[in-house]
Amino acid sequence: MKFLTEHLTFQVKTRRAFVNITPDVKELVIKSEIKEGLCLVNAMHITASVFINDNEGGLLHDYEKWLESLAPHAPTTQYEHNKTGEDNADAHLKRQVMGREVVVAITNGKLDFGPWEEIFYGEFDGKRSKRVLVKIIGE
Amino acid sequence: MKFLTEHLTFQVKTRRAFVNITPDVKELVIKSEIKEGLCLVNAMHITASVFINDNEGGLLHDYEKWLESLAPHAPTTQYEHNKTGEDNADAHLKRQVMGREVVVAITNGKLDFGPWEEIFYGEFDGKRSKRVLVKIIGE
Amino acid sequence: MKFLTEHLTFQVKTRRAFVNITPDVKELVIKSEIKEGLCLVNAMHITASVFINDNEGGLLHDYEKWLESLAPHAPTTQYEHNKTGEDNADAHLKRQVMGREVVVAITNGKLDFGPWEEIFYGEFDGKRSKRVLVKIIGE
Fold first, then answer.
1. Chain C interface, best mutation among A9, A44, A130, by max C CB count within 10 A
2. ipTM of the assembly?
3. Does B86 touch chain C (CB under 8 A)?
């Protein structure tokens, strides 16, 4: 059984952003030399997501707008969590809609993806250093 | 370590539908001859979901209605993504609520399920051929 | 390859509650003696969630209020599912937002967590005995 454990670091300059991390994950699959297995990719911070969807700018804009309608940032006083001095309660909610992690099959040494699948890091409370974990297990 | 990789193909005749794929996955667990491990089941398309819930018709109707209220199909012009010529932006949103994948434990050669757990394929932009990946790893 | 399969049992006294199960899962990781691998933690019931977020009381209150706004319990007659004699359709919906399961990497014999990650059991239809499955595979 083989394993690979790596961390990706992000410092997004805006509060919210979507970053396509597919190339980074593909590189780590090659580095792992694992031909058959599972690849876990998860946000290590609780105001960020890792999810799989389409690399299309309009759609990413739609996600941003939709998440803001489901869990608005303002007024920040509507959230109990923000009484701790934070203003990021909405980010914790948005992250639950988009998810913490993805698990991707590795087949013949590659991410076993459908035609349009791309892995994104979703940042909902940026402007500081945050990490994503990539863990690959298999043979 | 043993592996099994299989694809299920769906051609749903309506735009949206829920299909119970539990029997298909159970058959693949038997075929894999894996007694202890993990079973990943994921949609390979980004306008579809795989999720686990109750095989009860009324509930599936409730999901349909609820998802339409959270991410309405019409007016299609409300979404930037649809400017690409698509009309399925809502399907990309609905899929995030219901999820891309499930990971199920395999114990004693069987899906280690609670009493009511059933695996569903959720189609949000059907009428064409789409696939689900089943990847099982273990011993 | 090593495996551990364990069940946690919950009998929450209220309809809805969030229970921090991180200490239980950490104990099972030690018991498994697995140093590198994956840890699946999933609700075995379809009106409950397992998710990872912040152990902060205000935030848990915000989740409760937000989920009730996305998928209200009352009036119970708004849901087809409740015609079966149940009154828990909203719990099936809430569970989809928060998710069924988490998959956590194990590195050097520990849950490979970011600084604030904690695992929660989310109960949306309590007052009866329900279970969570912990399955660990690795070496």
1. A44
2. 0.97
3. no
